[in-house]
Amino acid sequence: MLSGNTLHSIFEARVQEAPGRVAVFCAGEQVSYGEMNSRAERLASKLRAMGVGPDVLVGLCLERRLEMIVGMLAILKAGGAYVPIDPAYPAKRIEFLCEDSGAAVIVSETAALASLGKSRSKIVCIDQDATRSAAAPGCEEQSSRLEHISSNGKPESTLAYVIYTSGSTGTPKGVLVEHRHVIRLFQQTEDKFGFTHNDVWTMFHSISFDFSVWEIWGALLYGGALVIVPSVLTRSPDQFHALLRERKVTVLNQTPSAFRQLIAADMRLATPSSFALRFIIFGGEALDVRLLEPWVARYGDQSPALVNMYGITETTVHVTYKRLSKEDLTRPDVSPIGIPISDLQIHLLDVEGQPVLDGDKGEMYISGAGVARGYLNRPELTVERFVQRGATRMYRSGDRAIRLPNGEFNYLGRGDDQIKVRGFRIEPREVELCLCSHPEVANAVAAAHDYGDGDIRVIAYVAPRHDGTTDEKVIAELGRHAAENLPLHMRPSTYFIVPEIPLTINGKADRAAVRELAARQQRSHAPSEDLSPTEQVVAGIWEEILQKESIGTKDDFFDLGGTSLALIRIFARVNDRFKLSMNGSILAEEATVSRLAFCIDEQLAAQPTREGVHSNRVQTLTEQAIVQIWEDVLQKKNIGTKDDFFDLGGTSLALIRVFSRVNAQFNLSLNGSILAEEATVLRLASCVDAELQHNQAQVYIVGRI
Asked: What does the pLDDT read at residue 615?
């Protein structure tokens, strides 16, 4: 049982128990509990001298590395509460977070100072001498007296952190969470998980997403080890898969969309992996149980245990617990979230605020010890969302569910238009107001779009002011405008220009009608480029996954609306198509079709072959295309270029289907007689290339990618 009334005091107890035990791993570095505590204490002393104390908000603007945890601990030790500020956020977003939180002090590092250029806060650089601090460039010194947010004076009731979520009024809102809220979360779930100092946790998520609270403190409160996952590995499922094995991770927390990609990486291996995992815990998004089918088929549902936990930032990370079993996979029509954590209650109410019967749909109102203090500087919104019913204080979630006769709940989705992207809550109105602030825009609607495999992104329908500006220019301007004002996960991946935004009879945007209107619009496309065969394949993959047409070889992936999840999907497809093992790091300097195609050609050229003997591996794009056709028709994987068609189970009918596909793809008129002596991919590819050369035809590989 955890004992202590603050997060840092419980951490300090673990330091006393085993100061030499490893606390945090990151990118080849590690630090012990004792060293972590000493470093945090030195920084905390500096913060106290600057006036940090109970309920003082301190910005935390650091990259994902050891120093982030040191800074977090130091802020708490000084008595303050940390406010996550992602240095990758747009400058205007960072400026807003600094101003709205009133953070007079920000813990950062030299590399992030440019991101804080307009902040008036005092900046303490964690990578500089602890006796020095760097003032934000061009800003005046602030008063050393810091304003405190009122609390009841008890240490457990002081703030631990303030995490900002999207706001429906166009302004992000900070959620006030106290130490006691987090501590009781672990106390109330100890009987379900039994976390110990032997556990190894990953910190996969951003500290701006409250899933990270569960990851960080799940490790540090119990004396376990925390593995900080570098950003590049969060976008490379194969490398992350290897990290889980290498570090013998026992507790893995994932959004369903991220775990879908990890399953795909696992399935690419011929045999099951030797994991040390005890628990895989899902959160942040609605779980579609069907995605677990290949995992359960390979590993079962017992070891590791699969747990789904519904939660909200305003109720301190998690609200419910559901241990998943094979039986749950037989009900793909529901998203099971289980029962409330023991010190929380879920009240299902109708639109009149009255309780509904079991089996009836209702909105979830959550009460109990995990309900946050409220919103920072937003008393009206706090009253609106944190409602009082008699003696019970409840948070109105906006989420809908039904209660089953056994007391468990099934999640049904939102009762409004709120979107979730990789676990981040997004209020469409905030995106819409940002777009409408541009002078070229008369009206806008933001919505969610599923690009496949759980890749949810924001799209926007925009009605311009019709002042003669071309649609292409409006879209380009809006892309820049969004990049200056919105975090990456909130920026629309695609803009649809419509003449107007249709309204319902109640005067609200008719989202169904605007989607139909956009579908009818004629889209203009840039003239086709002269692409190499590899560029054609890569561009086709990009266009399918990004759901865009006429992507140029020099178009930037992220400017096109690409996300880290979309990048993972692209590399999975590219590696499968070309039989390679590349990851997103090769696009670090230039994320274009041209760059990726160059890297593919380079790696294919470097593949070894025996002198004078053609290997059984794919060597050319023609062979790759034909292998893909054979695998589709024969329903087999990993076909080699010298494998005999009939030894693979091919029939005369299958051969007819193969030649039908080959002729359609290459615009030829070949028949099966050319394989009379040798029925292999190598022979067929040679005949295709010879015929193409004879016809002086351009090779266009346009088959299934």
From this structure: 56
